[in-house]
Each structure stands twice: as structure tokens, then as C-alpha cells.
Amino acid sequence: MDKTFIGNDEAFLNLNSYAMSQNPGPLILLGKRGLGKRQAAMDVIAQLMGCGSDELYKNPDFFLLDRQQDTIKVEDVLALLDKSSLAALKGKKFFLVCNAENMNVQAQNKLLKLLEDKSHTNVLIFLCNQDALLETIKSRCNIISFDPLSVEEISPYFLEKGIAREELLFAAYLCDFCPHAIENMGDCYPALLETCKNLMLARKKEELFQILHLIREKDPENFYEVHSAHYWVALQMFYYLFEQLLLQKLMISKAENSMDFKSLSELYSLPHIYQICSRLSAHQKQWQNSSYSKNDFFDLIRCMVKEP
Question: What's the Cα-to-Cα distance from 232 to each of 2, 68, 227, 259, 281, rounded to whole Å?
Fold first, then answer.
């Protein structure tokens, strides 16, 4: 099986072993979005089915459940169970469940019967971006973990994508060190890069309001309105700025970062940077819990501007 993702060599070895199994059991591929789990799962299934991964969607023994960011409900699992009762054309049927962390408890419990199928004619593979499945599910599955990568591992791929060398660390932060996530950023990457560079040139903290277009009411370029659809990535931009400021203040700035923080560094004390980094971490958790609002964003920017 050819390797289609970057790094995570141990995961690749484990996938190869799984792909050579005569009776593969249920499998969980666990790791953040953007590490290549989906294509890896497709490649494994294709090898087990004896076809190309580009042919899977035409194969009647392959079933995909992908609700994207929506909750996977009982009715979705019941539809999957109906398909599991059909006879396989070539001995086994394979079910790929994407974003399985979004499956509610009732739906997970419905799957237990299929996971306990001793005939090995139905094989389930779950893609999980978070470790959120029930223990009763996980205990019945093989688990292969995918970990975020180092800048050194990511850099050749980013350079091939046309990212400038001095932007490598910035790009790594934006994709949370999960390189394939960069492919889905589209226009938000250059927009956030430009904003980041403008913030780094600020002479006063109050200039953040102007740079982020927060002064004029209903400004169409208001930072939150422009980036709300991918706000997690925007938060990563701020994390890049202030974590690098922190490292610079502590005299342990990373060698691969060649962007100039001198102007911004003069504006912030070490205690203020600590406070901002702590607040950013709290905001990331709040965003993940789907309880974030425009007012929360304004509170974050006020924290960046006002000295504690």
C-alpha cells in the first residue's frame, strides 16, 4: 500500500498490517483533521477489497456515512444496519464512518450489535477527529492514532505548495500542525497572512482595532464577520503571534521563524502575553463547544489591547 500522508510512520506500519489481515476487525483512525486519515482509510479498504481507491464509490460492497459536521443520529445508523444485512458480492462489506465523534450516544449504542458480528462479513472503520466515542465502542476496535507533525516534517510539503520559507511556521500554526488542512483554506490563508503582517507592524496596541476593522459600525471587512466560518483558523493566527512573542521574550524563539516581531514585541509585557495566551486557549475550547459569539471575540481583542 502506498503512503498518501505525511509523517506518522508508525500509523502507516499499523495500517499496512491491518490491510494484510484475512479477517480485519473494526478500526478507529484517531487524530486531528488534516492528517490524511480519510485517504488512508480509503487506501486500506481498497487494498482489502482488491480495487483502486478511486473505484470504491462504484463498489456495491462499500458504504460511506459522512454527515460532515452534522450529528450522526439513530436513523443514520439504522440505514447502515439495513445495508449490513445485505449479502456481500465478494465476501465482505466495508463501512466508512466519517467524523464519528459527532455520533450521538443512542446511535453509538445501536452500532454495538454490528461491532459484535463474529462472521467478519461487515467491517466498520471510524474516522475520529476527537477521542469522543463510548468506551464500549473503543474496546471492540483496533485504534491507530495520527499525531500532529513538526515543522521539519511539514516544511517540504508546504514548500511544494508554494508557501514561502519565512511563512512555514505561520502556515503550520494555521493548520494546527496538520498539513493537509492547508488544502481547504482557500482565500483565508493569504487574508490571514496579510492581517498577521499588519498586526506585527503595529506601533500602538490600539491600532489592533483599526487593523481588524472594528472601529466603523457594520464595516464589511470586520475581522470576525469575514472569518467567522473558519474562526478556529483565525484563532490559530493570534496564537501564532502571541506564542512567538512569548518565546521571544523568554529568549527561546524558534530558529525556523524568520518573521519580524520587533515592533509588536515592544508593545507587550511578559505578564500581558501570558494573559493573552491563556485567554486564547480558553476561547479555543469555547469555540469547540459551539458557544462562541461576536461579543466573545470583542472581549478577546479588548484583552489584547488593555494591559492587565
Answer: 32, 17, 9, 22, 11
0.85 surpassed by pTM = yes
Q: Report yes or no: 176 and 148 within 8 Å, Cβ to Cβ.
A: yes
For 242-274, the pLDDT digits (tens) are 999 998 888 776 545 557 788 888 999 999 999
CA distance 280 to 296: 11
Listed in sequence order, the DSSP H helices in the chain are 9-19, 37-49, 74-84, 105-115, 135-138, 151-160, 168-174, 188-200, 207-211, 223-227, 231-249, 262-265, 270-288, 294-305
Segment 57-62 long-range contacts (CB within 8 Å, at least 24 positions apart): 60/89, 61/88, 61/89, 61/90, 61/92, 61/93, 61/94, 62/93, 62/94, 62/96
Which of 215, 214, 236 lies closest to 225 in space, CA to CA?
214
Map grid coordinates 460532515 to a residue: 68
pLDDT tens, position by position, 99-137: 999 999 999 999 998 898 777 799 999 999 999 999 999
Dist CA 241 CA 261 (whole Å): 8
What sign for the dihedral angle of Cα 15, 21, 24, 25?
negative
The SS3 call for residue 30 is strand
Please give the grid coordinates belonging to residue 146: 495520527
| Sequence-distant (≥ 6) Cβ neighbours of residue 95 within 8 angstroms | 63, 64, 65, 80, 83, 84, 122, 123, 124, 125
